[in-house]
């Protein structure tokens, strides 16, 4: 009889467009006498070269009692296939098993499940899974800070900005050296109409990553929101020059054109990537 876990994992849908064999039932094979760690390592390696095959390996392994490691590999395989709902199902199943076994990796698996649910657009599940990881005492320090940032992103996606601000503040206390944390905090402050906080936080982000286009682009947005159009154009122009073909660079160029700075826009137009060579 196939364990209930294997049935749950095998039932998760596969993203449209993945190879047909990804949804085929797992076939029983000869006994695998390798250690669980070795099987997990090989399964994870397979997710890079053939995630559909890795998915089937993980499902078959789960059917023979693979437990946490089989479910975790299945989550990684489904992530590689962009099957985010299936990945969230697998990671949450792995976390649940780990938690029942008092395995200290349960917290990491809840966070993985939360990120997969967030990628799937399911903010309710994302916040639930992330909250379980954050509440686990085994998650501490930087990992907890990053998980709080993830939950803040889920809060914003759910339009719960007050909860996002609380999570963001807690995250900043744990990962004060992370420029992306300051960028996210600055963007949130701008959305909440707190121009002073936004300006302070983007300054912190720029002090840690002064040449990162998305940070410089947001500095321009905050300057514009605070009424400094000349300063905004300066930052947007710099963002385009830093990384013209990135999303931030293209958005910055659009802002330059929208605010009538044709000279700056012309001087900071994205360049086509050079063909050939390194």
What distinguishing features does this structure have?
single chain; 278 residues; mainly alpha; 71% helix
Explain what this protein looks like in three dimensions.
- This protein has 278 residues and is mainly alpha-helical.
- The protein has a domain at 194-269: Alpha Horseshoe (Serine Threonine Protein Phosphatase 5, Tetratricopeptide repeat), CATH 1.25.40.
- Helix content is 71%, strand content 0%.
- It has helices at residues 4-11, 36-49, 51-63, 67-80, 84-100, 106-119, 123-135, 141-157, 161-174, 179-191, 195-208, 213-225, 229-242, 247-258, 262-267.
- The longest helix is centred in the first third of the chain and has 17 residues, at 84-100.
- The N and C termini lie far apart (54 Å).
Summarize the helices and strands and which ones pair or pack:
Elements: H1 4-11, H2 36-49, H3 51-63, H4 67-80, H5 84-100, H6 106-119, H7 123-135, H8 141-157, H9 161-174, H10 179-191, H11 195-208, H12 213-225, H13 229-242, H14 247-258, H15 262-267
Helix pairs in contact: 1-3, 2-3, 2-4, 3-4, 4-5, 5-6, 6-7, 6-8, 7-8, 8-9, 9-10, 10-11, 10-12, 11-12, 12-13, 12-14, 13-14
Residue stretches low in confidence (pLDDT < 50, at least 5 long) are 1-8, 10-29, 269-278
Strand content: under 5%
Sheet with the most strands?
none
- Mean of residue pLDDT? 87
Distance N to C terminus: 54 Å
Quick one: overall form?
Answer: elongated
The radius of gyration computed from the alpha-carbon positions, rounded to a whole number of angstroms, is 22 Å
How do the SSEs run, as a string of H and E? HHHHHHHHHHHHHHH
Number of strands: 0
Mind telling me the CATH class of the domain at 194-269? Answer: Mainly Alpha
Q: Based on helices, strands and strand pairing, what is the structural class?
A: mainly alpha
Number of helices: 15
| Helix percentage | over 70%
Task: Label the CATH architecture of the domain at 194-269.
Answer: Alpha Horseshoe
CATH topology of the domain at 194-269: Serine Threonine Protein Phosphatase 5, Tetratricopeptide repeat
